[in-house]
Amino acid sequence: MTAGPLRSARSSTTRACEGTVAIGPREEDALESQGRHATAVTEAHRAIEAIWRIESARLIAGLARFVGDIGTAEELAQDALVAALEQWPVEGVPERPSAWLMGTAKHRAIDLIRRRQTLERKHGEIARDIELTHESVQFDTAIDQQVGDDLLGLIFMACHPVLSKDARVALTLRVVGGLTTEEIARGFLVPAATVAQRIVRAKRTLAEAHARFDLPGSAERAARLASVLEVIYLIFNEGYSATAGEDWVRPALCEEALRLGRILAELTPTEPEVHGLVGLMEIQASRLGARVGPSGEPVLLLDQDRTRWDRLLIRRGLAALERAESLGGALGPYALQAAIAACHARATTAAETDWARMVALYDAVAQLAPSPVVELNRAVAVGMAFGPAAGLELVDALVSEPV
Fold it and tell me: Does the pTM of the predicted model rise above 0.90?
């Protein structure tokens, strides 16, 4: 009676043993080596991604100063990135990764210029300058020198007034922000091909206009800086009040605009309007978590739960506004709007808002940058400060104005 089951058990065991593959010490070592290699590659790629996000703008800026062309500078930087992706997983991340990237890109710049011997004499001069730099200065030292001016020059170049607003925004996010074409496209809900075309046309326009990679002189600095501030605030506003798509806000764009603004403030510490814009964005960004209700619906400012406002961003915004005010002179449009935002931020409830001060601030904004939106907001402040009738009178006057 027991023979059948015993034969069955024996048969199962035999089949199991026949199907088992024995792994010897060599195979185990090979698998372990493969695992270590895969881990090293993954860690190297993560390091490259982080370093590129931090250093790409400085790298492109330094290269643009040498080659005089933002498009060529970005191509050289991308070539250095590809080289890092190929070499760092094998050789390890260098001790000074940014210097390694700059050194690799400069070598490629020399090779590129040597291949363009038929072009204008300036290229030869640039090549000799780069060779001298390579021979006499360590790359990490070269990066530190003039890095602030280079980066500021890159920002001014990307926001050059010869470019359209859309082109300035796309090029700034690409070469200064370090975002990919796909990331920019997702942020603005447009096809990646559209963003790519804007960037290509922007580079071509700058080349055709012979736009110089240098800091603008005092005569044009104010206008050029205004163009930069406009681009940064356009990026922020697209995140703060999205003009397309189903989402009311897109925080990623606000964060990128804030990052660009903070960089600009470090590079131009004596410009009140730069600090004013940073203060305005910091305070407005503090409300992002309260601007949208549970179902994704917008929540108006006076109806927001102020306990959800980010107090750290508010403190940063107030500090930036204080910095702008301490530099002296009349406040510009961004600093005035930051002061208005500060009135809301300092009030724990809507009823505690200093509406009379806000009316005075809106009066000043209307003098510098008049618009129907400013007048409407001023009317609201007047109504809150001096009664609904006074506010409605201003609204009626605004509605009756010819379009």
Answer: no
Give the span between the Cα atoms of 280 and 284, in whole angstroms: 6
Place of tokens 């005035």: 336
- Which residues make beta-bridge pairs with 292? 298
DSSP state of 402: -
C-beta separation of 239 from 254 below 8 A: yes
pLDDT in tens, 45-81: 888 888 887 788 888 888 887 787 888 888 888 888 8
Radius of gyration, CA atoms only, the chain: 29
Q: How far apart are CA 321 and CA 346, in angstroms?
A: 13
Which residues contact residue 346 at a Cβ distance below 8 angstroms, ignoring those fewer than 6 apart? 318, 354
Regions of the chain with pLDDT less than 50: 1-21, 118, 123, 135-145
| DSSP assignments along 290-345, one per residue | GSB-TTS-B--GGGS-GGGS-HHHHHHHHHHHHHHHHT-S---HHHHHHHHHHHHH
Ranges of each domain in the chain: 39-145, 146-214+221-267, 269-290+302-345, 354-403
Q: What is the pLDDT of residue 398?
A: 81
Calpha distance 307→141 (Å, rounded): 47
pLDDT of the residue at 10: 43
> What pLDDT is attached to residue 225?
93
Place of tokens 């009066």: 363
pLDDT on residue 344: 96
Identity at 382, one-letter amino acid code: V
pLDDT of residue 15: 42
Burial of 74 (0-12, 13-18, 19+ CB in 10 A): buried
Residues in the chain: 403
Structure token pair of residue 327: 């530099």
For residue 402, give every residue at least 6 positions away whose Cβ sits within 8 Å of its Cβ, in sequence order, or none: none
Q: Give the position of tokens 């690409």.
A: 174
